Amino acid sequence: MGSDLPTLKGLRAFEEAYRLRSFTAAAASLNVQQPAISYQIKCLEEDLGVILFDRKNGRPKPTPKAHELFETLSQAFDAIRETSNQLRSSSPSSSFTIVTYPGIGTYWLSNRLPFLSEDLNRSVKLVTLKRDEDLWQESADCWIAFGHGHWPGKDARLLFKEEVCPVAAPELAAQIFDSHLSIGTETTKIIELDDPEKRWLGWDAWFQKRVKVAQTSNKRIVVNDHGLAMHMTLAGSGVALAWLGVVDDLLSGGSLVRLSTQTLTSDAGYWLVGERGFFDTTRGNTVLESLVPGAHLDVAAIDVCDPE
């Protein structure tokens, strides 16, 4: 038998497939096609002379030899990740990159970046993108994403759950309160976030669950970005349905006014997301503590075992 190490690609493919119990999920985590994972693991099995996965019933089941390899491999990779993160953190010349959406980046994260930069002792770069698929294609140290906390190959901490209510600029809010206007009638324009996939709570859900009188106006201002919706709301262009966690600073500062004491919530939310093991590092915990001081947040369990 040779003394050379197996290929790094083969070992990484094996690690992800073992951990996720899925070649498809491993491919998504490593940003490759599923056949590439199958090929790398086949080559690794041929190199080692053992079978690592029982592929019966359309789902890869690790063999005893796979358990043995993973125990050693995971310890080695975790040590490499920890050392790499420590080296990155000790380099003042490199910036720390966060990727998120324009709305939360502008109205929630931007005010926290100076404190984060000071806590990390390095410059911080903020990249904002509208679409989820673009979010994960962008190289970053961490992400802030909307969802349920399940992203293959990544760890997540909940920042705040989706909780929405109508808001308006102070002058418009005063007119609505003084005139006893109803939101959604011809006399009040609403600003709506375009959401063809129905990912977020929108005005239709609000009128259905929180308002006794049905919405009577079809004159909605539709935009494709939450940040733009908030910008127009601040300018007094209409009433928007806002995420309370995102606009808390605007509400406390008086730039926006809540139009209802009621809220609408869902099981989704905004999550701080890092590569697997990110929150086991000093850097990961520094980021979380800096963004949400005193937070004691649970890890989002990732259990992906879909059939191939």
From TrEMBL:
Residues 6-63 form the HTH lysR-type domain. One of its GO terms (biological process) is DNA-templated transcription. It holds the Pfam family LysR_substrate. SUPFAM superfamilies: Periplasmic binding protein-like II (SSF53850), Winged helix' DNA-binding domain (SSF46785). InterPro entries: LysR-type_TF_proteobact-type, LysR_HTH_N, LysR_subst-bd, WH-like_DNA-bd_sf, WH_DNA-bd_sf. One of its GO terms (molecular function) is DNA-binding transcription factor activity. Keywords: DNA-binding, Transcription, Transcription regulation. Belongs to the LysR transcriptional regulatory family. This is Glycine cleavage system transcriptional activator. The lineage of its organism: Bacteria, Pseudomonadati, Pseudomonadota, Alphaproteobacteria, Rhodobacterales.
